Amino acid sequence: MQHAFDQAIALEAGPDGLWQGQTSPAYANMVGPFGGITAAQVLNAVLQHPARQGDPVALTVNYCAAVADGPFAVLARPVRTNRSTQHWMVEVTQGTDTVITATVFTAMRRETWQSGEHTRPEVPAPQDVPTPAGRGRVEWLNRYELRFIEGAIPANWDGADHGTSRTRLWMRDHPPRPLDFASLAALADVFYPRVWRRRATLVPVGTVSMTVYFHAGPAELAVTGTGHVLGQAQAQAFGRGYFDQTAQLWNEAGDLLATSHQVVYYKE
Amino acid sequence: MQHAFDQAIALEAGPDGLWQGQTSPAYANMVGPFGGITAAQVLNAVLQHPARQGDPVALTVNYCAAVADGPFAVLARPVRTNRSTQHWMVEVTQGTDTVITATVFTAMRRETWQSGEHTRPEVPAPQDVPTPAGRGRVEWLNRYELRFIEGAIPANWDGADHGTSRTRLWMRDHPPRPLDFASLAALADVFYPRVWRRRATLVPVGTVSMTVYFHAGPAELAVTGTGHVLGQAQAQAFGRGYFDQTAQLWNEAGDLLATSHQVVYYKE
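The joint structure predicted for all components is written out below.
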């Protein structure tokens, strides 16, 4: 049986170069789908495109409007193809509405000097960190195995200022699925809103824009396989309705697979 | 006399809703213009657009090809206008070539709970940090007053691994100019390539994509005025031809004005 993630990101080549997709109830959020699955769908439109060259290096997804449950169309357009790199513009539409815009950069990468300067923090091994009991408050949370080391979703919404917005957790698809670029993009958005962590207050929120830089290539993805990914996320500033989030994702071997950033709307 | 920065970002409303601009020799880089001035031009096309609502919150600029010295056209298109937010797609073309793609998010922001979680590091005051002697190796460097506290452009290209890619500096336009959104976007790209800092080796480089999140609003810009901005930049990973950079920009009062990220191509 196909994994729920593969079902969710499946796109059908439609007329006029448009890909046709469908929101997945398995990845439903409070309103509309989990933003990470939308990012994976956008990336998949580029990955499946017959003109695509190379692997993804950068992905920026702008959440223009709530994606309604149901069908959507994805137009992925290579706007510039260089010798070994390619720039893409992507738009997701529902009827006449643009709900998502995105840009993707792909490249044929070659070996060079390398260094993971932001090293993985020392944390307990995944098997020594418990998974939360019970089901997630939204459906997509049940598609992930989340082992919070620090900064779990508040059990008590006490409204106190907890001084830090940092979360660290081991995570992977549930059931496990070998990591690829699309699932890595989705994992970059698994962190729940930093304002909830910092203030233990359930204010309305919505991601406005997310960027993922892929440091992993096929070798690091293969090494990761169905293993856990250590995610770390923290806000740098909250103010006048928006906060940012900076995030890092390492595998168990210590490779920095991706770095990610997003800016999120919040109320109050 | 008009400031060189204002001359450089000036755009003329052309036919068909296209803005017409011109590269500025004052901001010339080794090949083509300084990426920061291109980011400011892109943002300016949105800021000057008659349909624009609100202030910039997020800007992503993709450098698709070297911008040639000379004229260029900027098409800024509001793809989604919500009640208090707006999503833009921008393309810069020279002849039939797309050289830049960008997305911009603007919003009418309201007061909310706020906190600068990433606080400004303790550093000496700007007047206690010297400016480098002599002229910059490229012209645009002469348009900035750069007071390096840590991680200056290597004086000795000794090829050693310096263990860290972090740079901290006080910076502002030279001559001083009151900070605005466009000049803040440009400042986010002032940091020289992190691979040069880390390895003290002058390898070929080129920014592929840069994102800036604006935490400052009109009040913080006004407080900053012509004062110095503390910039901090560091890479998180280098590998297979690309590294990332994460950056923070604070004013002298300690406000986190912007956070920024970019991914950069490097050779060897």
